[in-house]
Amino acid sequence: MSMTKSIKVKNIKNGGIKPISPFKTLEEEANFWDTHSAVDQINKGTLVGFHQANKTKTLTIRVQPEDLQSLRELAFKQGIGPTTLARMWLLEKLHESKTK
Questions:
Q1: pTM of model > 0.90
Q2: What's the pLDDT tens digit per position in 36-63?
């Protein structure tokens, strides 16, 4: 028999972490994260919360095994997963097509 424990979370405004301004391009964001750490602003005792975005739809794309391996290798070099890299590329192309 398992028992669950209810945990209450409270928003604390004092001494909070300043939000990062939105990036204009993927390159700008990549340059930022190449020179910064996600934990730079976190001091001992700072409460940290995480939010996972709700993805509303899934798209399955079939690729050749060698293409998937190439995608994995490129993603690994950037320190991200292959799904994240593919999503970034897809969104980049969609954004480009809207600005044409």
A1: no
A2: 777 766 666 666 666 677 767 888 999 9
Residue 68 predicted with pLDDT over 80? yes
Are the C-beta atoms of 37 and 66 separated by less than 8 Å? Answer: no
For residue 99, give its domain range: 60-100
The verdict on residue 66 lying in a domain is yes
Sign, CA dihedral 60-61-63-69, equals negative
71 domain residue, yes or no = yes
Q: How far apart are CA 91 and CA 100, in angstroms?
A: 15
Residue 97 and residue 36: Cα distance in Å, rounded? 31
The count of structural domains within the chain is 1
Q: What is the mean pLDDT of the chain?
A: 79
Within-domain flag for 18: no
